[in-house]
Write a structure and sequence with these properties.
The structure is a single chain. The chain folds into 2 domains: 163 residues, Rossmann fold; 77 residues, no CATH class. The mean pLDDT is 88. The strands form 2 sheets. It has a 6-stranded mixed β-sheet with strand order 6-7-8-3-9-10, with helices on both faces. Strands 2-1-4-5 form a 4-stranded antiparallel β-sheet, covered by helices on one side. With 250 residues, the chain is α/β, with parallel strands linked by helices. Strand 1 and strand 2 form a beta hairpin. Helices cover 38% and strands 25% of the residues. Bound molecules: adenosine-5'-diphosphate (ADP) and magnesium ion. The site of magnesium ion has 4 residues, from helix 1.
Amino acid sequence: MTNTVLHVADVHKSFGGLRALSDVELEVEEGKVHAIIGPNGAGKSTLLNVCIGRIRPDRGHVIFNGETLDRHEPHEINQLGVSRVFQTPEIFPDLTLIENVMIPAFARRDGAFRLNAIMALSGEKEIRDEAEFVLEDIGLSARRHHEAGSLSRGDKRRLELAMCLIQKPKLLLLDEPTAGMARHDTNMTIELLQRIKARGMTKVIIEHDMHVVFSLADKISVLAQGSIIADGTPDEVRGNPKVKEAYLGE
Ligand code: ADP
Ligand code: MG
């Protein structure tokens, strides 16, 4: 029997007169990679923000591991085991890579990020060792003492992924993790995500690059103008005429 980790149930969200999400249903199974694809402005980032508590739906619910998240704050959802990579990297440019990776480990353990966490950074051997390991894993170890602001855009995105991995999330949400990356960086990221997949981490990945989607996804949901117009395995979705039509308008 499969276990549903994330259930988005009948979610609606409008911004003024604009319907960003209507009637959205999504079931993400444990250990699977679930891709959400769709044209620009389809509502993909809004859906991800609803899942992490940054945007409240007008109607409907988000259920994570059986728990309804209606009144949870984003940091509480994070502590329950949900981490996310945003479309624009959110890193600390003046801190070193290793410090950047250590901060989310404190946030997961001690609750909302505390300013004095930075003060504690040097003393925490266990978390520092973990951060070293994660940076090695992600291929940024050689630059661990560099300032994060000095990284290329692609490396900043990988650093943000490292900041999620150190939290050992039950569910990882990625908003276009390869956006702005050159092909070489994209391939490195795919390889990395495949390795994480082998460890059984459940993922929701929003992605524009079809090469990435078909390399990774077990299941695909297609969002267009705020509604899920198709879902299924990559082969099922690839052949769906409604999907081709939605992409023709791009
Ligand atoms: P996608 O990630 O699929 O490109 P988004 O979820 O970012 O799409 O946006 C869906 C629609 O909602 C777009 O028309 C966008 O302009 C609109 N939108 C997103 N966020 C806001 C906001 N905070 N206020 C008003 N409109 C928004
Ligand atoms: Mg988006």
